Amino acid sequence: MTATVTTPLRITPLSILGSRRALRLIERNIYVYRRSWIIFVSGFFEPFFYLLSIGVGLNKLVGALHIGNRLVAYTAYVAPGLLASSAMNGALFDATFNMFFRLKIAKTYDAILSTPLGPNDVALGELGWSLIRGSTYSGVFIVVMALFGYVLSPWAILCLPAAVLIGFAFAGVGLAATSFMRTWQDFDKVSLAIIPMFLFSATFYPLSVYPGWLQLVVRATPLYQAVALERGLDAGALSASLVGHAAYLAVLGLAGLVVTSRRLARLLLP
Amino acid sequence: MSALGGTVTAAARAPSHLGRPRWLRSLAYWAYRYKRTWRGSITTSFLYPVIYLAALGVGLGSLVNHHVHTVSGVGYLEFLAPGLLASTAMQVGADEAMYPVMDAIKWGRTYLAMLATPLTVRDVLRGHLAWITFRLVTVCAIYLAIMEAFGTLRSGLAVLAIPAGVLAGLAFVAPIMAFAGAQQNDRGFSALYRFGLIPLFLFSGTFFPISQLPRWLQFVAWATPLYHGVALCRGLALGGLGVGPAVVHTAYLVVVVGIGYWLATRSYAKRLEI
Amino acid sequence: MDPSDAFGATSRVPAADGEPLVVASGLVKRFGEFVAVDGVDFSIGRGESYGFLGPNGAGKTSTMRMIACMSPVSAGTLRVLGRDPDRDGPEIRSRIGVVPQEDTLDLELTVLDNLLVYGRYFDLPRRVIRERAEELLDFVQLTERARDRVESLSGGMKRRLTIARSLVSDPELLILDEPTTGLDPQARHLLWDRLYRLRRRGVTLVITTHYMDEAEQLCERLAVMDRGRFAAEGAPRDLIAKYSTREVVELRFGATEPAGVAAALEGLAQRREVLPDRVLLYSDDGDATLGEVHRLGLTPESTLVRRSSLEDVFLHLTGRTLVE
User: Fold this and answer.
1) DSSP E strands, A19-122
2) Min CA distance, B96 vs chain A (Å)?
3) What per-residue confidence (pLDDT) applies to C324?
C-alpha cells in the first residue's frame, strides 16, 4: 500500500460513504494492534471457550438436536450459533465501544479530520477494519470447527462470507447507535440489547422450546437471522429462507450506514 | 460568601469525628456517588438474573430435563441458579475492582483527592473495598430473591448463599484491586477478562458439573476460587452440603481474600504513597 | 539543525502574483441560534503570520476551524489557497497543518507512530514520512522519546509533538490554536523559536493566543475579535498607536480607595481608567502627566510610567469583564 497504488473502493453503495483514503484508517489500526497484538490474538479464544464449555460440557446433558432434517450432536448444533454470535459481538464491540472511545474520549478523529480524510472515510475505514478483524476470527473458528468435526457439509465454506455479512449488519447498527451516544452509561443500554438477544436467539437451543408468540419475537431479532443463516449453511440445509436471512442482514447494515453517514458529518464537523 | 470573605479560625474548622474509623468517609464518598446511578444498577441487578435463568435455566433446561431428567439430582434450573449467583458476584466484583479503581487512580483521580485530606492510603483502600462489599451484598440478595421467585431454593440454609456469594465475589475483588492498582492503562483488563474471568465463568461448574470435563481440567477447575464459590452457594441453596466440604470451600475463599487484601495494600501503597 | 535542511529540497508552488492565501468576506458561523462568527472580512498573504486575539468565546477558534476546512461555513465566502473549502476540503487540507487548541494525539500509538500514521493520512510514501519524522522529532527535541507511548509525555512534550505532527505534510499554511497555552516558559520559548524558523522558511502562520507577548513576538498582523466581530485589525505597533497612548501612568493609593481620588484626576490624561487597586492614566507623555498629579497635591503610594502595550489595546477594545 504505497501512495502510488490506486485501488478505488468504488463498490456502490459503499462509495457514497468514503474514498480510497479510508484505507489509511485501516493502516492506522494495524499500527495500533501491532503494539498490542495480545489483545488481537485474545479475540480468537472467546468463541472457542464457549464452544468447549457449553458445547462440550453440555453435550451429554442435552443430547442430539435437529438442524433441518439432520440429527446432530449438541456441540455441532451450537458451533455455528457461536460463530454467528461472536461475529456479532466483535463487530458491535468495534463499532460501539472502540468507536465511542475514539470519537468522544480520545478525540482521535478530530485530528484525522484536519488531514485530507473526511468523516465518511473514517466511518468506512473503521467498518473495513472491523470486517477484516472479524473475518480473521471467524475464519479461524471455522477451521477449529472443521478440525473437531463440527462442519457438517461442504456448504460450510459459505459460513465465512456469511460471518462477514453478519459483522457488516451489526457494525452498521452499532455505528449508528454510537453516533447518538453521549456517555459511557449509554453502553448499559447496548448490553441490555445484546445479552438477552445472545441468550434467547436460538444460539443455544432451537426455537421450538418457546411458545408460539415468543417464537415470532425471536425470529424478528437480527441475531436469530444470523444464527439461522450460519446453521443452515453449515449443515447444508439450503432453502429460500437463507436468502431471506441474508437480505435482512444486508438491509440492516446498509440502513445503519446511511444513518451513520448522516450523523457523523454533523458530529465531527460542527 | 463566607468561604471567601471570612477569616480562617480554628473554631471554623469542621468538628472531628473522633473514634469513627476514617475509612468510613471514603465509603461515604462511593455511596454518595452511587446516588446518580443506583436506579440503572438496581434494574440490571434484577433484569440479568431473570434473563439468564429464563433463557438457560428454563429454555436450555427444558432440553436437558427432557434428555437426562436431572443434573446432580435436581432439575437444570435448580442446578444452574446458585452457580450463576456465584458467577454474578464474581463478575460484578471484578467490574467494580477494575475500571473504577483505574479511574480513581488515573482518570478521575478520586484517590488523590482523598489523600489530600486526612485519609491514608489504607483508609482509601478499605473504604472502597467496603463499598464493593456492599454492592455484592445487594446483588447477591436480589439474586437470591429471584431464585426464590423461580422456586429454585431447596434448603432452609439458602439465605446463607448471600454471604457465600459475597465471599466468592471478594475472592476476586481483593486480588483484582491489587492488579488494577499496578496497571498503567486499562489494556490488562481485557486480557484478564478474556483469559481469566470468561474461562472461569464457563468452566467452574456453573453450567454443568465439572465431572463432564476431562480429568486434568477437573483439577484446574478445582483450584479456582469460582469453583469453590459455586459449590458453596449450590450446597447452601439446595441443601446436602457436608460440614467438611463447607469448611474447605469457605477456608479456601477466605485465604484468597486475605492474600488479595494483603497484595492490594502493597499495590496501593506503592502506587499512591508518592 | 536548521529545519530548512529538512524541507529545503521540496519545491513549493508559488502563489499566483500576490494572491492572498486566505480570503474571507462576510464570514459567518452559526451553531443553531448562536452566532459564533458574525460577518468578518480578512485576507492573509503568503508568508505572512497573522494572529487572532480575543477573549474566550470571541469566535477565534470557530474562524480557525473554518479556515482549516474542519467546520462548514454558515454564510459569506471563504477561499483557502484559492479554493472553496466546501468543495475542495480534502485538497485544501492536504496542504495545511493544524495544531488544535487541545492536543488530539493518537493515544493508542507511540510518539514516532503518531507521526508515521498521520503522514499516511496525507498519502505520503512511507520512506518520505520516516525521514521527515526523524527530522521533526529532532526539531522538537523528542528523539529520545520516539518509542514511548504518548500517554507518558508531559504537557509540553505533547504540545511539541502536536506541532511536529502538523509539519509532517510540509504544509504551506500552518494553523495554530493557542499553541503555547499551559506550557512552561522554557517550552514556550522553544516553540517561539521553532515557529520563527518556520516563518523564515516562508510558511504562512495563522495563530490564536491569549498571550500578548506571544502575539507581538509572532504576528505581523493581528485581528482583535470580540463577540464574533473584528474590533480592530492591523500590525501590533499600529494597533497600539491607534487604540492607546504612547505611555501609561499607573498610580496606587494604598489604603485610600482609588475611586475617592479618581474625580480629581479627571481630564489629566487622554483617558483615565479606575480599577479596584489603582488608577491608569493614558497619556503620550507619562512623566508630564505624573508631574501634574503631584502638582494637584496627590501623593500616590507608588507610581509607574510605562510604554503602552498590546494588552492595553486588548483590554480597551474587549473590556475588562469576564466573558464566558
Assistant:
1) 65-67, 70-72
2) 14
3) 44
**Alpha-carbon distance C265 to C273, whole Å?**
10
pTM equals: 0.82
Phi-psi region of C59 (alpha: psi -120 to 50; beta: other; left: phi over 0): left
Question: In this predicted model, what pLDDT tens digit does every residue of C190-229 receive, in sequence order?
Answer: 888 888 888 898 899 999 988 888 888 889 999 999 999 9
| CB < 8 Å from C in window 94-153 of A | 106-108, 110-118
Of A24, A35, A114, the CB nearest to C68: A114
Within a 10 A sphere around the Cβ of B255, how many other Cβ atoms? 12
Residue B72, phi-psi category: left (phi > 0), alpha (psi -120 to 50), beta (remainder): left
Tell me how close the Cα of B138 comes to any Cα of chain A, in angstroms: 19
Alpha-carbon distance C301 to nearest alpha carbon in chain A (angstroms): 52
With H, G, I as helix, E, B as strand and everything else as coil, classify residue C77.
strand
Q: Is A24 on the interface with C (CB under 8 A)?
A: yes
pLDDT reading at B255 higher than 60:
yes
Q: Which residue of A has its CA nearest to C120?
A: A24
Taking only the tens place, the pLDDT of each residue in C96-126 is 999 998 889 998 899 999 999 999 999 999 9
Q: Do A108 and C72 touch (CB under 8 A)?
A: no
Q: Are C153 and C161 in contact (CB under 8 A)?
A: yes
Which ranges of chain C does DSSP label H, i.e. alpha helix? 3-7, 60-67, 85-93, 111-121, 126-139, 155-167, 185-200, 212-218, 236-243, 258-265, 286-295, 310-318
Give the dihedral sign, CA C21/C26/C28/C34.
positive
Q: What are the residues whose beta carbons fall under 8 Å from the beta carbon of B108, sequence distance 6 or more?
A: none
Task: Kindly tell me if the per-residue pLDDT of B4 is higher than 70.
Answer: no
Q: Is C109's CB within 8 Å of A31's CB?
A: yes
Cα→Cα distances C32→C29, C58, C61, C90, C276, Å: 10, 17, 17, 25, 39
For residues C265 and C283, the answer to whether their CB atoms sit within 8 Å is no
In chain C, which residues have their Cβ closer than 8 Å to the Cβ of A33? Answer: none
The Cα B204–Cα B91 span in angstroms is 13
* Region at C180 (left for phi over 0; alpha for psi -120 to 50; beta for the rest): alpha
Check CB contact under 8 Å for B68 and A199.
no
* CA–CA dist C78, C86 (Å, integer): 9
Mean pLDDT, all residues of chain B: 89
Return phi, psi of residue A126, to 5°. Answer: -65, -40
3-state DSSP call for residue B65?
A: helix
